[in-house]
Amino acid sequence: MTLAQTAPRSAQIPDRVGRPLRLLAWSSFIAEVVIIGTGGAVRLTGSGLGCTEWPLCTPESLVPLPAQGIHGIIEFGNRLMTGVVGIIALAVLLLTIATFAGRRLVNRALWFAAGGIALGVGAYVVANPFDLGAFGFSSGLLLAVLAAMIDSVRRSERRRDLIVLAWIVLAGVMAQAVVGGLAVVTDLNAFVVGFHYTASLLLVCVTAAYLVRLAAVPGPRERAVPAWFAILAHVTTLALAATIFFGVLTTSNGPHSGDEDIIRNGFDATFLAHVHAWPGYILAGLVTVLTVVAWVQRLPVRRWLLVLVAAVVVQIVVGVWQAREGLPEVLVGIHMVLASLSAAAMTVVILHLKAPRAVVPATPDAPASTVFS
What we know:
The protein is mainly alpha-helical. It is built from eleven helices and four strands. The chain has a two-stranded antiparallel ribbon. Strands 3-4 form a two-stranded antiparallel sheet. Helix 2 runs antiparallel to helix 3, helix 6 (160-185) runs antiparallel to helix 7 and helix 10 packs antiparallel against helix 11 (329-351). Mean pLDDT is 82; it is low at 1-11 and 368-373.
């Protein structure tokens, strides 16, 4: 008998909220992937400074003016997508808290939001004389979000994992908006732009983690694979992280700087392209070993490893293709999105290294206990 079969009814998600929550969670994941694509479009079309100000598009207008042409529309479209991502993240958070912690904590979170707005207004007044009003307001609101997260997690007794993940996504989206503003005011500084992309990729991983944990049985978990396999899986994660890191550095110093007037004078992009490939090939080898072993030993991660294999293989093909074709914008954009999907697949694999414990029902002679599933 499994833990899922013996878990109390209160640990399960009522179907009337389970379906909307799953739908919103999937929407959040998809939106995080889409915004990587729209952000890539901003950069690859040279629209990074299509809106010269933040949070306004121009000193006089929130929306782009006709004089800014297509670049202004593309940049502003990405900003609108940030709003969509934020609204979905907020909806996931509030429904998660309401489902597992009750409406009282939802009301507390809303009071924190009101306090955050007041704090943001105060920070705006202080920072505005230094032309940093928008950043002051955003910082005040973000501080309130962090305080609300700590409060709701401390007061929650069920599914703290889901509540924490939902808060991370919302706080991350808000922080990303500020980082995007910094990218504009720093004239697309390569390191700021690179961090902006990396943070978006991490949010894709967090939303993927939320989906996994939402579908998982709550309660104690045990390692479901051999110890050496788990260690090798984490080493593979490091190889993936190194591949993405050097890929971000390569793109930051390549021809797609985000604006035709921004010239990169940092690292040698040609050399970095080779460095980026080295951990990529190591990654492919490690994933292959993990997949073969998982299927031979019929480990629970084997199907998700096939997804990871597919993502990595396609990513390598696109990477080689774009390098040989002189980095066409479409292929570079696909490469950026595939990197986030590869990272999400790796996240799912890591989370499936553990499984719920099985429960041995209590008998008159012995209390209930758990055994490895």
